Amino acid sequence: MEFLEKISYIFSKAKIVFAMFLFPKTMFLKKVHCPVYCYRIHAVKVKSEKGFTLVEILVSTLIMALAVGAVMQVLHSVIQLNETNNNMTQCVNVAQGLMDEIRGVIYEDIISNYNGYTFTLNDLDSQSIPNQGLVIASEIEPGYLMRVKIVICWKQKNRIIGEAIPSGNSITLQDLDASGEIDSPCSVEAAIIYK
């Protein structure tokens, strides 16, 4: 009989440990005198603590996921706009510098030296951003008034800013809307008067 008592005692201890892991807050152990001197588990409802149900946790997780998704989308748009603004600033600075250079040239030499002149920006080239600029010069009033327009287009990620088409690792300027000239959000235009 002693062997059976030992087995019963070991089994009761295992039940106690198992129950402590499964039900740490709703069960408690009570020492009860029995022939084998063992602990017995009595299921007694302990004061319930306030907590969340599984449904509440799932709903709150869904709401948080939607909120985080919306914030990430806004953050992505802000980063993309920041990159566009940085590229735009570099392009406008180069275009303004070139326009100042053209203004310093003799009136008669502007069309022959600059009309159709294409260039790339070193700052964007160093960042591996395909880009191309074009100078368009035409006389409005021959011998007196000239229109000079500088247009710069570039490829940003999978989007081309301005009228250009991709060609390998570079872009080629092209009048896509058949307006008669190449357009871009980054363009500088000036009228030059003969002096």
3D structure, described in words:
- The chain is α+β, with helices and mostly antiparallel strands and 195 residues long.
- The chain folds into two domains: 2-42, no CATH class; 80-193, no CATH class.
- It contains four helices and nine strands.
- Strands 3, 4, 5, 6 and 9 form a five-stranded antiparallel β-sheet that branches. Strands 1-2 form a two-stranded antiparallel sheet.
- β1 and β2 (39-42) form a beta hairpin.
- The radius of gyration is 39 Å and the shape is rod-shaped.
- The mean pLDDT is 83.
Structure, briefly:
With 195 residues, the chain is of the alpha+beta class. It has helices spanning 2-22, 54-103, 107-114, 122-126, and strands at residues 28-31, 39-42, 118-119, 131-141, 145-156, 159-161, 164-167, 170-173, 187-193.
Total number of strands: 9
- What is the number of helical segments per DSSP (H or I, 4+ residues)? 4
Helical/strand content category: alpha+beta
> Uncertain regions: pLDDT < 50 for 5+ in a row?
none
Q: Could you report the average pLDDT, rounded to the nearest whole number? A: 83
Can you write the helix and strand succession as a string? HEEHHEHEEEEEE
Overall helicity: 40-55%
List the domain count as a whole number: 2
User: Radius of gyration from the CA trace?
Assistant: 39 Å
Shape, please?
A: rod-shaped
